Amino acid sequence: MTDNGTHTDRKWWTPFNVIVGIILAAGAILTVMRFTQGIGAVTNLDNNNAWGLWIGFDLLCGVALAAGGYVTSAACYIFGLKRFHSAVRPAILTAFLGYALVVLALHYDVGRPWRLPYPIFVSQGTSSLLFEVGLCVFLYLTVLFIEFTPAAFEWLGLKKIRALVVKLTLILTIFGVVLSTLHQSSLGALFMIAPSKLHPLWYSGYLPVYFFISSMFAGMSMVIFESTLAHRYLSRHMDDTHHREAPGVALGFAKAAAFVMAGYLGIKLIGIAIDDHWRLLTTGWGMWYLVEVIGFVAFPALLFAMGVRERNLIFVRWAAAWTVLGIVLNRLNISVIAFNYHLPSHERYVPSLMEIGTSVFIVTLGIVIYRFITTRMPVLHEHPDYSAHSPEQKSI
Amino acid sequence: MGISRRKFIGGLGALALGPAMGIPGTARGASNKEFAGWPDSQSVLHDITKCIGCRKCESACHRVNHLPDPETSFEDLTVLDQKRRTDADIFTVVNRVDNILPVFVKTQCNHCLEPACASACFVKALEKTPEGAVVYNEKLCVGCRYCMVACPFNIPAYEYHKALAPRVTKCTMCHPRILEGKRPGCVEECPAGALISGTRDELLAYAWDRIRTYPERYVSHVYGEHEMGGTSWLYLSGLPFGQVGMREDLGTKSAPELTSGPLSAVPIVVGLWPVLLTGVYAISKRKEKIAEQEKQAAVADAVDQSKKQAQARMETLRKKWEQEKQSAINFEVKKALEDAAAKDPEPGQSKEDE
Amino acid sequence: MNTLFFTLQDFMVHTKGITYLIMGGILVALPLFWWFLTDRDDENSF
User: Fold this and answer.
1) Phi, psi of B134 (to 5 degrees)
2) B174, B206, B200: which is closest to B187 by C-alpha?
3) C31·A124 Cβ contact <8 A
């Protein structure tokens, strides 16, 4: 990292830039392969396993981890928790980038990406939950884009149009929460159509609820995790307000996440009881299920709680990273690992290196764009002309 | 239905619909409305006990659907021993399912009455036709492959190696031929009578009649009658269906029933969330306003109080001052008088005398 | 409105299509009504 403060003597051959360069070059090659030789040339997908890593990780995890956008803006603008204000912009930016990358990843995964607008503009398959997801992601991406524009307008010095967008903050936030509720839960409901393929411990009538509730603590953990990284590498772009409020934001979200996770554990238990799947818990799949639920939900929840009680940010940050991993594990379990569990092992899906490479490429692209924007636009700091104490900001 | 149907194998119409026949696949939405499927839609009955594994149906399927020739010819019966499934250019396969007995099962799209693939498709590229076939429209398909995820029978295949216009492929029940009044290619070709076509009601009645007539030959179950809400392709078997590689744990709920719950929750969220969230916003805003007012009142009060205190203090100060001034004057006067008295023993008197 | 449906699938496509339109309507109508409801709050100031 070249955090030496000045832009003039920036070095290009830093380890970060070299690694990023290699990943982006590899991504470019994979992209060419994917679009000239077909999905089959780069993936291990087959007729039994139609969805792999690109859906399980890029789509499901991408959307869940981008939930920080709606969680933070709702906390600040709807619930009136003003101390989260400095966290809103980075969260909105991450969410916007997250969703943009999800859509980018879909271009790789679907067979004819130029037809992605079809469900909305050409032929509406309203009986499909994927239609619901597509529509909401499309609308929410638009909402996030508008929510982020004030930062860009401040950067460009467009005061009037900025003021107009700021007036829309509340309505955009409410739209954002509605759309997020819908598509976060619908992503879980996607799998309700296949009770014969998803392992019964993961298949549940509550799948949509599980996905929605877990998206909340996924979003909060991601905000904490991302702010940890940002403080380490982008600290010089933060203002005093951001520095002063960051520990409060982390502790506040840690407290909320811990409690939501406790509730989530409760409803997971209810799910087992409702379907009477107790006996499955002692099987191999049951052990794996318990690893996910106890190891990656109960444990980080406890760690969050200890961090909050002790005012220990180290605990909180580790718990956040652990929770993020747990969300990835949960989404992969549902879409890949425990999906098609009944197939013999040689018919099961294991992602190819090229699939993993493409996912790494897309995540890297996100980090590069995040860095580009936060080092230029007022995201981690407030623009001097529009600080929180100016009358415009007070109106919301 | 505006289709000209071929007459079903003679004598079938005379068969009475036995009481053992269940309600032909019905599906319910959230509203308890029932749907019995398209009336008089075409079906195929596959009698597994009659299949001899000749692969004639496979070759007929390739011919009528203009599919590319496979690597090994259809005469080669050794492939029957491998476990095969439908593929991008193979719409139907026959598998030998028992190592000892010569039991063969033909696999292809079952053309569900309430197709999971159609329910899953977000561009309506898959559709259940009134004639019974579930057909695919490649002009709409985006290639998301959710249909393949949704299909409980693992039937749709994908052209993974096409870069430009990959399609989902599957058996069409020879829908174009059915519209012409012909039978599906495989049915027409079958030399063993293991495949027969007709309306679903006729075939169900026929199947149950077979079971009742030959109870020792068949298990008492018509596969596809209720599975996943019922299918247009029906099966009779001598071995339990689980043993011939067909899943018996699919349940009878159709795909649209499985998703109707979450689908109907969506509009409710849209209706209630804005109300709830605006309410939360209004409450927090109001609390803020009250807090602000109270703060202002407190400040005003404090200012008032301090003003009063200041006034009072000023008053006492002034009084003290005046007292001090007075006493200073008195003191000065007294001092002056004393001085004067010291200079002149009786100045007062002299002055008074003047 | 008296379309006859033979399959639940067709019924779902039809009814959900209508509810999506209603949802759009709700999302437009609710903010407008809220605005109408609170427009004069500052004048009355309670």
Assistant:
1) -100, 115
2) B174
3) no
